[in-house]
Amino acid sequence: MQLQLLKPPHTVLWTMTVLVWASSPSIGIAIAQERPPEAAAAPDGRDSAQADDQASGGDELSPEELAELEAALGQDAEDAATSRPPAPGPSSVASALQSMNPDISLIVDSAIAYFSDEDNLQTGGHDPTSTGFNLQQLEMAIGKEVDPYFRLDGNLVFSQFGVEIEEIYATTLNLPWNVQARIGQFLTQIGRINPTHPHSWDFVDQPFAIGRLFGAEGNRGVGVELSYLTPLPWYVEIIASATDAAGEATARSFFGSQDLPVESPLDVQSSLVIKQFFGPSDDLSALWGLSVATGPNATGHDNRSDVYATDLYLKYRPITRQSYTTVALQTEWFYRRRQIPNSLLSDLSGYLYLYWRFARRWSTAWRAEYGEPANTRKGEFEGDYLDPDWSDYRVRGSASLTFWPTEFSRVRAQGAVDVPFWRNDPIYALFLAFEFNIGAHGAHKF
Questions:
Q1: Distance, first Cα to last Cα, the chain
Q2: Which part of the chain has CATH 2.40.160.10?
Q3: Which helix (DSSP H) or strand (DSSP E) does residue 89 occupy?
Q4: Between the N and C ends of the chain, which has fewer C-beta atoms within 10 Å?
Q5: Which neighbouring-strand residues pair with 221?
Q6: CB-neighbour burial class of residue 347 (10 A; exposed 0-12, middle 13-18, buried 19+)
Q7: CA gap 343, 337 in Å, rounded
Q8: Among candidate residues 339, 334, 240, 336, the one with its CA nearest the CA of residue 296
Q9: 440 contacts 117 by C-beta, under 8 angstroms
C-alpha cells in the first residue's frame, strides 16, 4: 500500500519518459546498454514484461490520458516554434560572409622568346620583350562578397621588377533599376581586349593598337563606373565611367606621363560603352560594341583627345550536339583624334583574328594587325609627339597553336612577322609560352 502511494500518476510518468527520451536520445541508449542481462527476468521467475506491467500498476493509458499527453506534446512544440530566434538580418549575413576566406588564385605566364631585332616594337606591358626567358607576369586574383551590398575584387601583378596593383574595386550587388556600379581602380570596358587579362588571350602578346593608344597596361584608372542593363528585347548594356586621365602606361593618349592637376570635370577621362548581344541560333552568338573615350591631353590648355572604337565578336559553338569545336571571329578598330597646337592629328589602328578550337585540348588562331601614321587634316605627316618614329604604315601577322594538358595549364607556340614600313627590314618573332593556374578563379566574360 505504501508502494502504491509513492508511484507517480500515469500521465506524469509517461510525459516525463517521452520528453526525456525526445530531448536526449543518448540517455535512453545509455540506459538500454547499461541494463544488466539479469534484469531481463524478474527475481521470482516472471518475464520482464510482466514485472514492468506490475510495477506500473498493470494499467494502460486511457483515452483521456492519451489525449492529455498529445495536448502536452503539442503545446511543447508550439512553445519551441515561437521561441526560435528571428531570421538573420543584413548584419548577421555580413558576418557570415566575412567569416569565409576569399577566393584566391595565382596565374603565372612565362615565355621563351626570339626576336630578329632587339628593337622589336612590342607595346604590351605583359608581352615578351627580349630574346631569351621572359616572366610576363605572376597574377594574384582575390575576390569575395564584402556584405549583401558589395563585392571586392583585386588583381596584383608581380614581375621581376616589383609589384603593382592592376585592379582593386568594389562592385555593388543590389542596386535597383538594373544598375550596377564599380568604385576603385579598374580597366575600362572599351573594346574586347582592354578589359581582359593575359590568361584569357588567344595570343601571347596583345595587339599593338592597345599599347599605342592607351599604354602598355591598357586603359585603366581610379574612378567610378555605372552600368545599366536596358529592358530592350535583346541584350543591351550601357556603361559610363570617369577615371584618371594621367598615366604613361594607362592613359597615353590623354595626360599620359604628365601628372597635371584636375581643375574641372573636364580634366578626367570619360568613357561611354554600348554592348549588344545577339543569338541568331543556338550554336551561333554575336557581341557588338561601340565605345568612345575622351579626355584632356598634355599639349596645351583645353586640348583634348578622343578615341572612337567598335568591336565585333562572332562565336560558333555547337550545343545542340556533342562537339569540342569552337570557331570565333574577333575584330576591333580604333579611330583617334588629338588636338595639338595649331593642328589636329588623327590615325586608325585595329586588328582581326580567327580562332579555331579543333579538338578537346588543341586550338589555333591567326591574327592580322594594322596601324597608320598620325596625319593632319590635309593628310601629310607633321610628326607625332607620342610616336615620332611612326612615320608610315605598320602591319603585323601572327599565328598561334595552343595545347591544354588540363584546364589549369597551357602551352602555346606563336610566330609573328612585323612590318613597320618606316624601317628597312621586318621583325620576326617566335614564342613558346607556358601558363599555370592554381586556386579559385572566376569565370571569364563572354
A1: 87
A2: 105-439
A3: none
A4: N
A5: 186
A6: buried
A7: 11
A8: 339
A9: no
Question: What is the rounded CA–CA span in Å between residue 119 and residue 131?
Answer: 11
Half-sphere exposure of 306 toward its Cβ, with a 13 Å CA cutoff?
8
pLDDT tens digit sequence for 306-326: 999 999 999 999 988 889 999
Query: Residue 142 is placed in which grid cell?
Result: 582575390
Domain 105-439: assigned CATH number: 2.40.160.10
* Residue 135 CB-half CA count within 13 A: 11
Integer-rounded Cα radius of gyration of the chain: 36
Task: Characterize the bridge pairing of strands 409-420 and 326-340.
Answer: unpaired
Which of 303, 374, 375, 373 lies closest to 339, judged by CA? 303
230 CB neighbour count, 10 Å cutoff: 13
CA-CA distances (angstroms) from residue 128 to 109, 123, 432, 434? 10, 10, 10, 12
Three-state DSSP at 252 gives coil
What 8-state DSSP symbol labels residue 177?
Answer: T
Over the stretch 158-208, which tens digit does the pLDDT of each residue have?
A: 988 889 999 999 999 999 999 999 999 999 999 999 999 999 999 999 999
Asked whether residue 90 carries a pLDDT value surpassing 70, the answer given is no
Residue with the three cell numbers 577615371: 243
Look-up of cell digits 535583346: 234
User: Among 188, 186, 190, 187, which Cα is nearest to 308's?
Assistant: 190
Question: In degrees rounded to 5, what are phi and psi of residue 199?
Answer: -70, -10
Q: Cell numbers 598620325 label which residue?
A: 374
Q: How many whole angstroms separate alpha carbon 246 and alpha carbon 255? A: 5
- Alpha helices, DSSP H, located in 24-163: 25-34, 48-55, 63-82, 90-98
Strand, helix or coil at 311? strand
Average pLDDT value over all residues in the chain? 84
Cell 555605372: give the residue.
226
User: How far is residue 388 CA from its own chain's centroid?
Assistant: 38
Helices 25-34 and 10-23: crossing angle in degrees, nearest 10, is 100
* The three cell numbers locating residue 166: 592592376
Q: Is it the case that residue 54 has pLDDT exceeding 90?
A: no
**339 CB neighbour count, 10 Å cutoff:** 17
236 to each of 190, 229, 231, how far by Cα in Å? 15, 6, 8
Q: Helix H segments across 220-310?
A: none
